[in-house]
Amino acid sequence: MGYKIAVVGATGNVGREMLNILAERQFPVDEIVALASRKSQGTEVSFGDTTLKTKDLDTFDFTGWDIALFAVGSTATKEYAPKAAASGCVVIDNSSLYRYDPDIPLIVPEVNPQAVHEYKNKNIIANPNCSTAQMVVALKPLHDRAKIKRVVVSTYQSVSGSGKDAIDELWNQTKGMYVPGQEVDPKVYTKQIAFNVIPHIDVFLDSGDTKEEWKMIAETKKIVDPSIKVTATCVRVPVFVGHSESINIETEDFLDEDEARDILRESPGLMVIDKREDGGYVTPIECVGDFATFVSRIRQDVTVENGLNLWCVSDNLRKGAALNAVQIAELLGREVLKKG
Ligand SMILES: NC(=O)c1ccc[n+]([C@@H]2O[C@H](COP(=O)([O-])OP(=O)(O)OC[C@H]3O[C@@H](n4cnc5c(N)ncnc54)[C@H](OP(=O)(O)O)[C@@H]3O)[C@@H](O)[C@H]2O)c1
User: Fold this and answer.
1) What CA–CA distance (Å, rounded) separates 66 from 31?
2) How far apart are CA 195 and CA 230, in angstroms?
3) In angstroms, rounded to a whole number, what is the distance separating the alpha carbons of residues 279 and 94?
4) Ligand 1 pocket test: which of 21, 52, 72 has the largest number of ligand atoms within 8 Å of its C-beta?
5) Nearest 10 degrees: Cα torsion 214, 239, 19, 92
6) Cβ atoms within 10 A of the Cβ of 43, count?
7) Are 69 and 33 in contact (CB under 8 A)?
8) 33 C-alpha vs ligand 1 centroid, how far in Å?
9) How confident is the model at residue 292 (pLDDT cuts 50, 70, 90)?
């Protein structure tokens, strides 16, 4: 006997990817439903070799459904996730709405799988921000060995992290650059994204950090260790899929770059590609469609006592969202629901 699964936001970037990944990983599904807004009712989405017709979330009854994978943004999540959870369906949510609620576990299965049992508090589990998810997969094994004190991270985040309208904006703006009269003004972003980089993701806070930067700080503390100090600069770049991060780590104990490379090679969810030669590293285009988080450019930072630098790349729609959500569902199945 398998699970009854609802994919909420099935017409979006993350929702479609969740359907792909459930099929690819042969998640034990007995019944699956694709949900989105009323305007998408009847829209066809793929689930492996089959096609599902999208249904209206607003009129859907979650009673009797085991797990709902939500990817609809905070506003719709606020309205519908509590209803699903109250009807006995476990919600795994991709929005930021519940991530900082102390009663709701925030999970990256390679890092803090033990937190899954806290799902009982509200029948909801939160999925982290895309830039946090890939970073903590790389940080955790190094933290276990040498105790990370401080992290300085700069991100290079793709436009798919801002939803499907942002993908269109980059595509149309890029084409428009070459066709006189078809220039496209910024709409999703505050400045032109084609052939540009924008050091601004999410809203500005009083501190001068953006909310995206704050999320990386708060989520790393919640998932890995509250004692880790993190400072982040999050930047949007004209890449369709795949987030990259330059990560500088300061540890309590000395950690040699070769040992760090070996540790990362052995750790779950990671793939080390680190040859000190032309092309001996991973770029975002190469990670698209992959399950792994890739680490390259592992090297000592000799400007501090115990420092390391690394380059971390992952498919933000996968590890940063859909894959992590499906991994949480697998964990929940294995540890708690035990069907299939
Ligand atoms: N993209 C990433 O890398 C990433 C990473 C981590 C987390 N997330 C989070 O995942 C969520 C979805 O992101 P996305 O990139 O997939 O967005 P998206 O491509 O814009 O898709 C949004 C989805 O939500 C549905 N939706 C929106 N409002 C709705 C409502 N009121 N009722 C029912 N359905 C509604 C849309 O349905 P219609 O097509 O019918 O409008 C669509 O299926 C967001 O919370 C985002 O922050 C995204």
Assistant:
1) 10
2) 29
3) 33
4) 72
5) 0
6) 15
7) no
8) 16
9) very high
CA–CA separation, 269 and 110 (whole Å)? 7
Q: Taking all residues of the chain, what is their mean pLDDT, rounded to a whole number?
A: 97
d(CA 82, CA 8) in angstroms, rounded, equals 13
Tokens of 44: 């066809």
SS3 196: coil
| CB of 73 closer than 6 angstroms to any ligand 1 atom | yes
CA distances from 75 to 67, 95, 293 (A): 20, 9, 30
Specify the residue with its C-alpha closest to ligand 1, atom 20.
163
* Cα(9) to centroid(ligand 1), Å: 5
pLDDT at 19 over 90: yes
Phi-psi region of 60 (alpha: psi -120 to 50; beta: other; left: phi over 0): beta
Q: Which active-site residues does the annotation give?
A: 130, 243
To the nearest 10 degrees (0 to 180), the angle between helices 130-146 and 257-266 is: 120
CA distances (Å), origin 229, targets 106, 134, 137, 140, 168: 18, 17, 17, 14, 36
| Residue 317 beta carbon below 6 angstroms from any ligand 1 atom | yes
pLDDT value of position 340: 72
Model pTM above 0.70: yes
- 248-267, pLDDT tens digit by residue? 999 999 999 999 999 999 99
Alpha helix segments (H runs only) across the chain: 13-24, 74-86, 130-146, 164-176, 211-223, 257-266, 284-287, 323-332
Angle between helices 323-332 and 13-24 (to 10 degrees): 50
Ligand 1 centroid–CA 77 distance in Å is 10
Do the strands 67-70 and 29-36 form a parallel or antiparallel pair, or are they unpaired?
Answer: unpaired
Indicate the burial class of 4 (C-beta count within 10 angstroms; 0-12, 13-18, 19 or more): middle
Task: Give the residue among 85, 89, 88 at the shortest CA–CA distance from 97.
Answer: 85
